[in-house]
Amino acid sequence: MDENKIGKLVGQVKDGKLSRRSFMTRMAAVGIGAPTAWHILDFHGVARAQSAFAYKPTKAGGGGPLKILLWQAPTLLNPHFAIGTKDQEGSRVFYEPLAGWDNDGNLVPFLAAEVPSRENGGVTADGLSVTWKLKQGVKWHDGKPFTADDCIFTWQYAADPATAATSIGTYQNIKVEKIDNFTIKVVFEKATPFWADAFVGAVGMVIPKHVFEPFKGAASRDAPANLKPVGTGAYKFVDFKPGDILRGERNPEYHIANQPHFDTVEVKGGGDAVSAARAVIQTGEFDYAWNMQVEDEILLRMERGGRGKAVPVPSGNIEFIILNTTDPWTEVDGERSSVKTKHPTLTDPAVRQAMNLLIDRESVQKFIYGRGGKATANFVNAPARFTSPNMKYEFNIEKANQILDKAGWVRGADGIRAKDGKKLKYVYQTSINAPRQKNQAIVKQAAQRAGIDLELKSVTASVYFSSDVANPDTYSKFYCDMEMYTTTMLQPDPERFMLQLVSWEIANKENKWQGRNISRYSSKEADDAFREAQNSLDPARRAALFVRMNDIFCGDNILLPILARTRMAACSNNLVVNPSGWDNDLWMINAWHRP
Amino acid sequence: MGTYLIRRLLIAIPSLLGISIVLFTVLALAPGDPFEEMATNPNIPPEVRMALREKFGIDDPVYVRYIRWLTAMMQGDWGFSFASRVNVDDLILQRLPATIFVVGSSQVLALMIALPVGIYAATRPYSIFDQIANTFAFIGFSLPTFFTGLLFILVFSIWLDWLPFVFRTDIDATGWRWFWEQFKQAIMPVAVLGLFQAASYTRYVRSAVLDVIRLDFVTTARAKGLSERIVVIKHVVRNALIPVVTLVALQMPAVFGGAIVTEQIFRIPGIGSLLISAILANDTPVIMAVTFVFSCLVVLFNLIADLLYGWLDPRISYR
Question: What's the predicted TM-score (pTM) here?
Answer without folding.
Answer: 0.79
